[in-house]
Amino acid sequence: MAEQGRIAPRLRLCRGCRQFVGWEAPDCRFCGGDLDEMEAEHEARQQAVRDAAAALQAAIEAERP
Amino acid sequence: MNELPVRYAGDEDAANRVPVSIVWEITLACDLACSHCGSRAGRRRRDELTTAEALDLVAQMAELGTRDVGLIGGEAYLRKDWLEIVAAVRAHGMECGLQSGGRNLNDERLAKAAAAGLQGVGLSIDGLRDVHDEVRGVPGSFDLALAALRSVTAHGMVPSVNTQINAKSMPQLRQLMDLIIDAGATQWQFAITVAMGNAADHPELLLQPWQMLELMPLLAELAVEGRERGLFLQPANNIGYFGPYESTIRNIVDDEIHWHGCVAGDTVFGIEADGTIKSCPGLPSPYAGGNIRERSLRDIWENSEPIAFTRRRTVDDLWGYCRGCYYAEVCMGGCTWTAHSLFGRPGNNPMCHYRALEMDKAGLRERLVKVKDAPGHAFDHGEFELIVEPAVAPARVPDRILIDG
Q1: CA B88 to CA B92: how far, in whole Å?
Q2: What's the predicted TM-score (pTM) here?
Q3: Of A9, A15, A29, Cβ closest to residue B329
Q4: B209 vs B349: CA distance, rounded Å
Q5: What is the pLDDT of residue B6?
Q6: Which among B72, B119, B75 has a CA at the least distance from the CA of B97?
Q7: For A7-61, what is each residue's pLDDT tens digit?
Q8: B311 vs A11: CB contact, 8 Å cut-off?
Q9: Nearest CB to A5 within list B15, B248, B326
Q10: Contact at 8 Å (CB) between A24 and B286?
């Protein structure tokens, strides 16, 4: 097929104000937060949730006869 | 829900122009009389496809890589061979769902549909009993739709609801959600009523652009609550765009999913009962790419100019507020159908949350006023003027910004 479909530019989700922004600026144009820093904090929180879920699952498995 | 339904298109589908999802009006015959019906359904078209033509079309869809076929009408079950069509779609390895008003979707019909391979049924429920029966034009239609919804689950198909959001139904959405969860719905698709067909004759039904300030926080709250209760909200393409609730409203499995422009003719298309192929089922005749009685589906899909408009247009084709919007390059003016129905051309869509927020910040709001009636045929539209005026009341301040959980 000769003609490709349109692939829209992908935006970045600001973890501070939940608005989508372009990748060109380091700070959110809406809340002014540092996008990389907030993303790292978000990922750390998500990892803590995953770790807690895994620990819970392991505890459940250990109690199984 | 852990993975996206097959009807969701990815970048690879878009790049390769796979018509992932097709919406097929198999008849215009209908047993309801809805005051918002865009196709002004009621009587069948004189030249609807024959069974042989319909089954051949199914094979052509499969050959193009289609994964999901949604049957609509009118009322699809009023076509005598509708179960043959369902069975053919399934035999070609595609998923098949039905959108129905549910007035006569009785237990026997549903049992036969399940046996033919139908996988999901979406019932159109447009508010609580009083509003639904009024806008659907048939007293008792609300109870019949709700009974059909309960029966869908009993027959092992996915039960969903689709709702038109308009001036009458918006105040009832919260109560409606409780009710459809109780009736077993697991998916809820909603769209803003578009000023097309019968809806163009009822401007009192239509939401105003500034009402996005109230609607989007409400939908975000319902989306979060719905997910917790096993109901997944699915916004139609005219719900949005951006603002603080974009992720919450559109998120199914990935909170970084955002609106990325109308995909009509790129990964979706619509079919009218006479075999007319359109880039979107809601769009009027200027968007028709051809008829399968005259050309093959592949030829229309690959070579028809009207089907290609979403991939050939640029930001320069936008106008009005959308032309200078921060999101212009991604959004491309939102839903083509909505904009075209209001102004007779796409590229400027006032039914937008971000736009309403920006207007509100400036102490302004936009109001639509109908200036020309629709002529009175299927998929027609009138003409609206956009008035920018001082905002008369402060916008609703959200109780909270919904955070990811």
Answers
A1: 6
A2: 0.91
A3: A9
A4: 9
A5: 73
A6: B119
A7: 899 999 999 999 999 999 999 999 999 999 999 999 999 999 999 999 999 999 9
A8: no
A9: B15
A10: no
